[in-house]
Amino acid sequence: MSLKLIGAGLSPFVRKCRVLLAEKEIAYEHDPMAPFGVSDEYKRMHPQGKIPTLVDGQKVIPDSSAICTYLEGRFPEPAFYPSDPYLRARAIWYEELADSGLINGTIVPFQQRVLAPVFFKREADEELVAKALQEILPPYFDYLEREIGGSEWLLEDRFGIADVAIGTQLANFAYGGEEVDASRWPQLAAYGARIHQRPSFAALLEEDQKTLASLRS
User: Fold this and answer.
1) Residue 79 within any structural domain of the chain
2) Distances (CA, A) of 43 to 47, 129, 133
3) Is residue 112 part of a domain?
4) Confidence check: pLDDT of 35 > 90
5) One domain, residues 21 and 123
């Protein structure tokens, strides 16, 4: 039975899973369910009512990190998590940094300028956006600038889950009308551009632009 991934494509967490699926060339069905007013049936699969959730036959895997770990185990090639224990731990750290840290700043412009007017019928709170840009994000961007250094990718000189996780958050940052300041964080800005130029990302970003255009029309 084919895999089914549930969750709206504009979600950075859904995108993280879809990029991994594309990179591993795994066939799957995508159900673009929005994370608003989810059904009781869905909550039986994911009691938090969040997206995404992966369904593989009778197996149900909520949460993007759990999904990516599952996909890596079931479809090990090409590998996206290092085999070395320390480097694997570093990869998981970067993934967690993106999922629970970086997102606290990168998602704000998107939430305020896209989601707020479209779904909640209210104007953007630009004070919240300014706080994200001036207070929340700089320490994360400073850290990533140092970690990237002159490397193409974060670990093992190859594209991996750490890059996927960070790249997907930077995509939503751009959808909110922002970009990494290349004069202040040149390594991070170039790194984000490299990620988004990969075919796996580029196809989804193009799809997202169509979705955004339809939401704004």
Assistant:
1) no
2) 5, 31, 34
3) yes
4) no
5) no
Say if residue 164 is in the same domain as residue 140: yes
Residues 60-71: tens digit of each pLDDT: 999 999 999 999
Other beta carbons within 10 Å of 110 = 24
Q: 3-state DSSP call for residue 23?
A: helix
**Last-in-domain residue among 21, 49, 74:** 74
- What does the pLDDT read at residue 192? 98
- Kindly tell me if the per-residue pLDDT of 1 is higher than 70: no
Write the secondary structure of 121-187 as one string of H (helix), E (strand) and C (coil).
CCCCCHHHHHHHHHHHHHHHHHHHHHHHCCCCCCECCECCHHHHHHHHHHHHHHHCCCCCCCCCCHH
Contact 7, 32 (CB under 8 A): yes
In-domain check, residue 92:
yes
Share of the chain above pLDDT 90, in %: 93
Contact 119, 35 (CB under 8 A): no
74-113 pLDDT tens trace: 999 999 999 999 999 999 999 999 999 999 999 999 999 9
Q: CA–CA separation, 90 vs 93, rounded Å? A: 5
Give me the domain span that covers residue 15: 3-74
Of 24, 50, 74, the domain-final residue: 74
Here the CATH number for the domain that contains residue 70 is 3.40.30.10
| Helix, strand, or coil (residue 80) | coil
